[in-house]
Q: What sequence folds into this?
């Protein structure tokens, strides 16, 4: 069977237990699954506890990211590859699913190029940040994942990547999941977070856009607010890499993966057999 | 070639860079290597930074261990599977060695039984500690390691184990390395720390015992002080599991693994072809 790649967000309110239960059920039913997780709330909590300031970088285009200076990198690695990854692995093991936790630095699973100089806007002025350890993803090692899947293991992946100078780099989890889904030619990429999907009228959850064909991704990108922009971008990258179906769905419901597969959330697909959602409109 | 299992301690003063360089050189020369690492100094530093008190448990027989209550467990997991493991993996990757970091919870690599009630001595009185997450090792998954080694990866292992209730457990790194060496039928287990080996007259480093045949392990155990007792115990377990040679050696020299293999440190061997070190004596 072609694998599913499932991304579970690291934000506050995300329920890892229900996602783990659905992953274990899928694997038990014979579906190979790769689980990619976020880490933001855990990294913020550990940073606060350790007295490391959490700072955001705002790009000139308005994109917000974590300022990962060397001190924050140590916290980020501890939270991502340590706390969240091993909590998820132990949770899955407790459900009988033989999970193996990895980060992108392991086995060159995710290679990235460090953004050595980042333009950031602060108090209306641009400055160049040179102490950041964030990476632009380059490639994924699908062979390592295929070997683990073939041997019956379920890979659980923390959003770190290996830089070209062997740096450990913070990378975006949604786009990492898209790259991995492409490398495995997964049939579905399911991105779960603490929103129901793409909202036409953010934050009105009743304004969910149920379907976006690939041809209307530009319109979807225009609707997306904040973190959702990265998810739509990840969906586009997955489709371009040959993944036919991406679902953006809610992690806060009782069976989040099963609910998404049953049709909930925003389905972003290669094919246009669905009627286009009227909310995508023509006024954009 | 039969693999080497190398354990590098996590104490202050241990030089990870030189160990990583030796591991990369061995792998480059065609020797399969599994590297197991400690975590004590990194866990202490993160705990101090996060304001989590570092407490020791002293057993009635005088053995000292880290009190790993739920709060300390989160720190321990973060430091072991996050910080130290990924630092070593990235270091090896920078040397061209395709390392994969795992902890014992991953793929059921190390299974253990939680010590749910531990007798500890405090101010001369015994009490029972029930909130500790330390484990007694039961088994290692050699298949997972063999699969990774056969595919050209170098496993790097953090000293955590999976408990019978899917708990994450703190386990002794030396004994974990011995269990792994046995499961792989390694030809050598090399245990590096910030002492030259077993000392007949601790802490006099000139009193190094150069050879202990298996038949004299009881005498060696009587000589061993503090942490060295665990290393001699690990050596015994490795020999019992079929590993013919265990070397206890110094991590602080320029080429620690090569120096150990050239004959430095304390060699604990199945065979008695060496003259028994006079320091083991007959007065014990």
A:
């Amino acid at each position: 069977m072609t694998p599913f790649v499932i991304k579970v967000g690291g934000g506050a309110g995300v329920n890892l237990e229900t996602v783990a239960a659905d992953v274990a059920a899928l694997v038990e039913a014979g579906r190979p699954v790769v689980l990619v997780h976020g880490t933001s709330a855990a990294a913020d909590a550990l940073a606060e506890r350790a007295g490391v300031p959490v700072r955001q970088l705002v790009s000139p285009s308005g994109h917000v990211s974590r300022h990962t200076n060397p001190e924050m990198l140590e916290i980020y690695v501890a939270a991502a590859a340590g706390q969240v990854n091993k909590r998820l692995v132990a949770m899955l093991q407790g459900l009988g699913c033989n999970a193996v936790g990895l980060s992108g630095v392991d086995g060159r699973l995710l290679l990235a190029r460090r953004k050595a100089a980042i333009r950031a806007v602060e108090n209306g002025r641009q400055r160049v940040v040179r102490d950041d350890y964030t990476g632009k993803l380059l490639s994924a090692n699908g062979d390592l994942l295929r070997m683990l899947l073939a041997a019956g293991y379920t890979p659980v992946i923390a959003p770190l990547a290996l830089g070209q100078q062997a740096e450990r780099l913070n990378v975006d989890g949604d786009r990492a999941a898209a790259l991995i889904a492409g490398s495995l030619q997964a049939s579905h990429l399911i991105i779960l977070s603490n929103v129901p999907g793409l909202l036409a009228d953010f934050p009105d959850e009743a304004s969910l856009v149920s379907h976006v064909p690939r041809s209307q991704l530009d319109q979807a990108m225009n609707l997306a607010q904040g973190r959702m922009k990265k998810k739509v971008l990840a969906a586009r990258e997955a489709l371009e890499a040959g993944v036919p179906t991406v679902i953006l769905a809610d992690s806060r419901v009782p069976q989040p993966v099963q609910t998404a597969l049953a049709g909930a959330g925003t389905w972003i697909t290669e094919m246009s057999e669905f009627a286009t959602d009227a909310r995508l409109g023509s006024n954009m």
